[in-house]
Specification:
mainly alpha; 255 residues
Length: 255
Amino acid sequence: MVASHYVLLGVVLFLASVLHSAAGFAFALLAIPVLLIGGFQPQAVIAITAVSVVVHGCLSIVRSSEKPDWKGLSWLIAIGAAMQPIGNWILSQILFLSRGQICQIFGCILLAVVILRLTLRPEPREHLPPVWGVITMIASGIISGMSGMGGPPIVFWLIAHKWSNDRMRVTMWAIFSSMAVTNLCWMSARFGEPVWNAIVLGLLFTPVTLLGTLPGSRIGAKMSPVTMRNVATTILVVVAVYAILQPMVLPRTGR
C-alpha cells in the first residue's frame, strides 16, 4: 500500500469510531464502503473493520455497568457464526468483478439497510418468539460473511424488545464483537494471507480507533439521540449513493 492508503485508513477508522460512539451503531456501515471506494480489497476491508469492532465492543462492554446475558445470547451467536461461511463463499464468487462493481454491490446493501431502518418501526414487546431470533441471525450471519455489514438485522431485532437502552447497547456490543471474531476465523481459513495481513494492520491502527471514542462519547452526550441518528443516517445515505454512482460518474477514483 502507498502512504495515502494508510492516511485514508486512519481517517476512516477514526471517523467511524466517532460515529459509532456517538450514535451507537454504524462503524462497519461507514468504514467498509468508504475504504472500498478508496481502493482497498474487500477481504482486507472486512477484516480490518472486524478487528476494530472487536476492540470497540470489548472496551464498551468493560466500561458498561450492564453486562451481557452470555447464556441467553450464545445460541444466537452460534447460529450467526454458522451462517458466515455462506457469506464468505458469496464474497469469493464476486471477487472477479471490478472494484467499482463491488463498490456498487456494497453500496446497494448499505442503502437497503438505511431504507429498512427508516421504514421498519416494530412495536416493542416484552418477549419475541424464538423464531425471530433465528431468522435474524441467519440473515446477519450471511450478510456479515459477505460484506462485514451484518449488524442491521440485529439492531432491528433489538429495538423490537422492551429493554432498557443499556441492555440493548451491551447486547449489541456482545453480538457484534463475538461475530466479528468468528468472521475473522472463517475468512482466515478461506482467504489466507490477505486476511492475516489485514488483521495485523487493524491491530496496528487500534490506537486510532480508541482515540475516536473520546470525541464520539462527548458528541453523543451533548446531542440528542434523535438528532445524532438523523445525522448518522444522512452520512450513510451519502456514502451509499456515492458508492453506487462513483464507478459511473468518476470511474478513475479509487483505482
